[in-house]
Amino acid sequence: MNTDDSILIVEINETNYIFVAGFLNEDNNFQISEKTIVSSYGFSKNKFTNLDLVKQTVKKNIEIIENKLNCIFKEVTIIIDNFYCLPVNVSGYKRLNGSQILKENISFILNSTKLSITENEKDKTILHIFNSKSILDGAIVENLPIGLFGDFYNHELSFFLIKNNDLKNIKQIFYESNINIKKILIKSFVEGTQLIENNKKEDTFFILKINKNSSQINYFEKSSLRYIENFFFGSNFIYKDVEKVCSLGNEIVKKFFLTELSKNINDVNNNEFLEKEYFADTNYRKITKELIFDVANSRIEEILNIMFIKNTNIKFLNKSSIQLITIIEDKVIQNILKNYFKTPLIKKTNLKIEFIDKLNSDTSMITATTLSNYGWKKEAIPITQTKNSIISKIFKYLFN
Fold first, then answer.
1. C-alpha angle with apex 74: 176 to 373, nearest 5 degrees?
2. CA distance 400 to 393
3. DSSP secondary structure letter of residue 29
4. pLDDT digits over 59-75, tens only?
5. Segment 142-158, tens digit of pLDDT
């Protein structure tokens, strides 16, 4: 692989570091040549716990890929998941009094709101900015209304910020490998755009992700990422609660759900006890299957209340009849307890509930390459205006 054509993407998440290398083919599409997945040693609960170990792991695996492909990577696109990324939604406005909206008006709003964010969040750095909503004289306009006339223009922006210390650590990790960071992308952003590209009609939706040990709620509105929130619990919380309440071992609980997968929960007899075969290595206990399902149902309702139904952090978001895409990493939990997730949401919201499988990792990497190279239609890029010194003004006058 030619060094100039080589592309490297690294994902950092709660369980794995994913290294993907490839190149742009004749059709200018990213083609994967090598993929490596290793455990995320030195990273836990949204932060690096052993930076030296992370540096060693990353450097070692990049060198292995470089040797396999006979190339040297100059830059990397990084996908981050489960870091604390603060969402900030703000509005700027311009009184027009019947005049035309100019590009400079929108640039001023963008730059002034960006300045306000950076001054108030000095311990954080902006990763993404999205044009969330444009409102001209009370009416929402789909695209930036440059050239239109009106009296009052309101522009909503969504900022996503990362802690300076986290950003510093990420830079240090790849500095050790002599690789420049081209772009840092939040995984929620990558996966949301992936869903939008796969389904051209839907651009406003929630994503409810429940992994084994962590969970996340995301919200996209008109193709703009508006909100992210992480939680330190997942589907394993359901297993653990059944273990605790019913005094059962982890293996028994997991074996029970796996065995019941092919059955209909509604057909469970209220008086039916767990079979003795589940207690091969321990003393038999009389536990009704109904009790196990009741405990699981209670924990699922608790998870949904915390994450979505009673989450005060998302009250400002549009929760009308739109789509809620639910992704549960543990397929046994999703398949056997799907209705336990669905019922509370249907009762207490007007959302259209859809369960999908975990998004394809390779497709996510391809999406990330496109975003890194070309950006996204809803991304807002502030224009930096610098003051010219006297000397620069002289040179500008002489040579321009």
1. 125
2. 10
3. -
4. 999 999 999 999 999 99
5. 888 999 999 999 999 99
